[in-house]
Amino acid sequence: MSKISPWGLALIFILLSACNDAPATQWAYSAFDSTGVKVLSGWIELNPQPGDTLTGNWKFDPVGNPSNLGPQTGTGTYQGTQTGLNIQLELNPSVVDDNVGLTGQIIGNNWSGTWVYSGFPGIINHGTFIANR
User: Fold this and answer.
1) Which of 10, 35, 77, 115 has a CA 20 to 30 Å removed from the CA of 19?
2) Is the sign of the CA dihedral 40, 58, 129, 97 positive or negative?
3) Which class in CATH covers the domain with range 24-132?
4) What is the pTM assigned to this prediction?
């Protein structure tokens, strides 16, 4: 029975690691209401998948006592797309009448844009966000 050398094990590990999808990148996240007041703080992962698909997790905590933020507090998973530097995410992809969407653009280590909380009656609330690597 032959043994694999430590160098052989290291090479196998490197080759297997290279076969994985790109790792998720966690971004520090802040959201603001339509008047510019900070309403959320937390993090979001941007996890590229094959093609233009993004998936990942998020955790947002309210700052102060904001109202009408919809289901964007606590933790969750999202689905979205990336076209060039533009990213669109739905924080609650399995719900069509109580959802929060993020639309923004990455420039360097900053991703910024708008969030919209929509429900059956239409847009309920909106604001801006910024996320940094």
Assistant:
1) 77
2) negative
3) mainly beta
4) 0.79
